[in-house]
Protein backbone atom coordinates (compact mmCIF):
# COMPACT_ATOMS: atom_id res chain seq x y z
CA UNK A 1 0.00 0.00 0.00
CA UNK A 2 1.14 3.54 -0.63
CA UNK A 3 1.45 6.01 2.19
CA UNK A 4 1.52 9.77 2.72
CA UNK A 5 4.20 9.31 5.38
CA UNK A 6 7.23 11.43 4.48
CA UNK A 7 10.71 9.98 4.88
CA UNK A 8 12.08 13.54 4.83
CA UNK A 9 12.88 14.04 8.53
CA UNK A 10 11.46 17.11 10.26
CA UNK A 11 11.30 18.30 13.87
CA UNK A 12 7.79 16.82 14.10
CA UNK A 13 9.08 13.32 13.27
CA UNK A 14 11.03 13.42 16.54
CA UNK A 15 7.90 14.05 18.64
CA UNK A 16 6.46 10.76 20.01
CA UNK A 17 3.27 9.55 18.28
CA UNK A 18 1.30 9.63 21.53
CA UNK A 19 2.09 13.31 22.11
CA UNK A 20 1.17 14.19 18.53
CA UNK A 21 -2.12 12.29 18.69
CA UNK A 22 -3.01 13.89 22.04
CA UNK A 23 -2.18 17.38 20.79
CA UNK A 24 -4.19 16.79 17.62
CA UNK A 25 -7.25 15.84 19.69
CA UNK A 26 -6.84 18.86 22.01
CA UNK A 27 -6.12 21.43 19.30
CA UNK A 28 -8.81 20.17 16.91
CA UNK A 29 -11.36 20.21 19.75
CA UNK A 30 -10.17 23.70 20.71
CA UNK A 31 -10.76 24.97 17.19
CA UNK A 32 -14.41 23.90 17.45
CA UNK A 33 -14.80 25.74 20.77
CA UNK A 34 -13.71 29.01 19.18
CA UNK A 35 -16.44 30.99 17.47
CA UNK A 36 -15.07 34.44 16.55
CA UNK A 37 -13.36 34.91 13.16
CA UNK A 38 -10.42 36.72 14.81
CA UNK A 39 -9.64 33.90 17.25
CA UNK A 40 -10.13 31.30 14.49
CA UNK A 41 -7.86 33.28 12.16
CA UNK A 42 -5.10 33.18 14.77
CA UNK A 43 -5.61 29.42 15.27
CA UNK A 44 -5.63 28.85 11.49
CA UNK A 45 -2.47 30.95 11.03
CA UNK A 46 -0.74 28.89 13.75
CA UNK A 47 -1.77 25.65 11.97
CA UNK A 48 -0.46 27.00 8.65
CA UNK A 49 2.84 28.02 10.32
CA UNK A 50 3.21 24.54 11.85
CA UNK A 51 2.48 22.91 8.51
CA UNK A 52 4.88 25.16 6.56
CA UNK A 53 7.63 24.43 9.11
CA UNK A 54 7.66 20.84 7.77
CA UNK A 55 9.37 22.11 4.61
CA UNK A 56 10.03 19.47 1.94
CA UNK A 57 8.05 16.89 3.93
CA UNK A 58 4.88 18.66 2.74
CA UNK A 59 5.36 17.46 -0.87
CA UNK A 60 3.36 14.19 -0.62
CA UNK A 61 0.34 16.21 0.51
CA UNK A 62 0.23 18.51 -2.54
CA UNK A 63 -2.91 17.04 -4.06
CA UNK A 64 -4.56 16.81 -0.65
CA UNK A 65 -3.97 20.53 -0.13
CA UNK A 66 -5.45 21.26 -3.54
CA UNK A 67 -8.58 19.28 -2.62
CA UNK A 68 -8.76 21.16 0.69
CA UNK A 69 -8.55 24.48 -1.17
CA UNK A 70 -11.36 23.47 -3.53
CA UNK A 71 -13.52 22.35 -0.59
CA UNK A 72 -12.88 25.68 1.17
CA UNK A 73 -13.96 27.65 -1.91
CA UNK A 74 -17.12 25.53 -2.28
CA UNK A 75 -18.06 26.04 1.39
CA UNK A 76 -17.55 29.81 1.03
CA UNK A 77 -19.66 29.90 -2.14
CA UNK A 78 -22.40 27.80 -0.55
CA UNK A 79 -22.70 30.15 2.42
CA UNK A 80 -22.44 33.20 0.17
CA UNK A 81 -25.47 31.94 -1.78
CA UNK A 82 -27.30 31.51 1.54
CA UNK A 83 -26.21 35.07 2.46
CA UNK A 84 -24.23 33.77 5.45
CA UNK A 85 -20.65 34.79 4.55
CA UNK A 86 -19.54 34.99 8.19
CA UNK A 87 -20.74 31.43 8.89
CA UNK A 88 -18.86 30.30 5.76
CA UNK A 89 -15.66 32.02 6.90
CA UNK A 90 -15.85 30.44 10.37
CA UNK A 91 -16.48 26.98 8.85
CA UNK A 92 -13.56 27.30 6.43
CA UNK A 93 -11.14 28.50 9.13
CA UNK A 94 -12.09 25.54 11.35
CA UNK A 95 -11.84 23.08 8.47
CA UNK A 96 -8.44 24.35 7.28
CA UNK A 97 -6.93 24.45 10.79
CA UNK A 98 -8.10 20.94 11.76
CA UNK A 99 -7.21 19.46 8.34
CA UNK A 100 -3.68 20.87 8.33
CA UNK A 101 -3.05 19.46 11.81
CA UNK A 102 -4.32 16.03 10.71
CA UNK A 103 -2.23 16.07 7.53
CA UNK A 104 0.87 17.06 9.54
CA UNK A 105 0.26 14.05 11.83
CA UNK A 106 -0.13 11.73 8.82
CA UNK A 107 3.02 13.03 7.13
CA UNK A 108 5.22 12.61 10.20
CA UNK A 109 3.87 9.50 11.95
CA UNK A 110 4.06 5.88 10.84
CA UNK A 111 0.73 4.00 11.07
CA UNK A 112 2.44 1.31 13.16
CA UNK A 113 3.37 3.92 15.80
CA UNK A 114 -0.23 5.16 15.90
CA UNK A 115 -1.47 1.59 16.29
CA UNK A 116 0.87 1.04 19.26
CA UNK A 117 -0.44 4.21 20.94
CA UNK A 118 -4.06 3.19 20.40
CA UNK A 119 -3.34 -0.27 21.82
CA UNK A 120 -1.86 1.25 25.00
CA UNK A 121 -4.83 3.59 25.39
CA UNK A 122 -7.35 0.78 24.97
CA UNK A 123 -5.63 -1.77 27.24
CA UNK A 124 -7.51 -0.58 30.42
CA UNK A 125 -10.75 -1.66 28.69
CA UNK A 126 -9.60 -5.31 28.54
CA UNK A 127 -11.56 -6.31 31.76
CA UNK A 128 -14.72 -5.18 29.93
CA UNK A 129 -14.05 -7.67 27.16
CA UNK A 130 -12.58 -5.17 24.69
CA UNK A 131 -9.78 -6.70 22.60
CA UNK A 132 -7.39 -3.74 22.56
CA UNK A 133 -5.17 -5.27 19.87
CA UNK A 134 -8.10 -5.95 17.53
CA UNK A 135 -9.69 -2.55 18.05
CA UNK A 136 -6.38 -0.74 17.60
CA UNK A 137 -5.77 -2.72 14.41
CA UNK A 138 -9.20 -1.70 13.08
CA UNK A 139 -8.53 1.97 13.81
CA UNK A 140 -5.04 1.78 12.28
CA UNK A 141 -6.45 0.07 9.18
CA UNK A 142 -9.10 2.77 8.86
CA UNK A 143 -6.41 5.48 8.97
CA UNK A 144 -4.24 3.49 6.59
CA UNK A 145 -7.07 3.03 4.12
CA UNK A 146 -7.69 6.77 3.98
CA UNK A 147 -4.06 7.29 2.99
CA UNK A 148 -4.07 4.33 0.62
CA UNK A 149 -7.19 5.34 -1.27
CA UNK A 150 -5.90 8.88 -1.66
CA UNK A 151 -2.71 7.46 -3.22
CA UNK A 152 -4.79 5.19 -5.49
CA UNK A 153 -6.91 8.15 -6.59
CA UNK A 154 -3.74 10.11 -7.35
CA UNK A 155 -2.38 7.27 -9.49
CA UNK A 156 -5.66 6.92 -11.39
CA UNK A 157 -5.72 10.67 -11.97
CA UNK A 158 -2.11 10.64 -13.23
CA UNK A 159 -2.89 7.77 -15.62
CA UNK A 160 -6.01 9.55 -16.90
CA UNK A 161 -4.06 12.79 -17.34
CA UNK A 162 -1.38 10.95 -19.37
CA UNK A 163 -4.05 9.52 -21.70
CA UNK A 164 -6.23 12.60 -22.11
CA UNK A 165 -4.16 15.61 -21.02
CA UNK A 166 -6.61 16.60 -18.27
CA UNK A 167 -7.64 15.46 -14.79
CA UNK A 168 -10.18 12.66 -14.34
CA UNK A 169 -12.31 14.31 -11.65
CA UNK A 170 -15.65 12.59 -11.01
CA UNK A 171 -15.02 10.08 -13.84
CA UNK A 172 -12.56 8.30 -11.54
CA UNK A 173 -15.21 7.41 -8.95
CA UNK A 174 -16.15 4.08 -10.57
CA UNK A 175 -12.59 2.70 -10.95
CA UNK A 176 -11.68 4.03 -7.49
CA UNK A 177 -14.70 2.25 -5.97
CA UNK A 178 -13.70 -1.01 -7.68
CA UNK A 179 -10.14 -0.67 -6.34
CA UNK A 180 -11.47 0.06 -2.84
CA UNK A 181 -13.72 -3.01 -2.86
CA UNK A 182 -10.94 -5.27 -4.16
CA UNK A 183 -8.50 -4.00 -1.53
CA UNK A 184 -11.04 -4.37 1.27
CA UNK A 185 -11.75 -7.94 0.12
CA UNK A 186 -8.05 -8.86 0.07
CA UNK A 187 -7.45 -7.39 3.54
CA UNK A 188 -10.57 -9.07 4.95
CA UNK A 189 -9.49 -12.46 3.53
CA UNK A 190 -5.98 -12.05 4.96
CA UNK A 191 -7.26 -11.06 8.40
CA UNK A 192 -9.74 -13.93 8.35
CA UNK A 193 -6.93 -16.40 7.72
CA UNK A 194 -4.44 -14.91 10.20
CA UNK A 195 -6.72 -13.77 13.03
CA UNK A 196 -9.74 -16.02 12.66
CA UNK A 197 -10.70 -17.92 15.78
UniProtKB/TrEMBL annotation:
Subcellular location: Membrane
Membrane topology designation: Multi-pass membrane protein
UniProt xrefs under CDD domains: EcfT (cd16914)
Pfam families: CbiQ
Keywords: Membrane, Transmembrane, Transmembrane helix
Family statement: Belongs to the CbiQ family.
Descriptive protein name: Energy-coupling factor transporter transmembrane protein EcfT
Organism: Rhodoferax potami
Amino acid sequence: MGSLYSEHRTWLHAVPAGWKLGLLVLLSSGVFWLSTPVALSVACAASVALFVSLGAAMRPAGRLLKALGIAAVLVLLFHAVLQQPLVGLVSVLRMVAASLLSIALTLTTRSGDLQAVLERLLTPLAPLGVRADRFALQLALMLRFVEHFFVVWKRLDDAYRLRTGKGGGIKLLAPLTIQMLQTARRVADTLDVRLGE
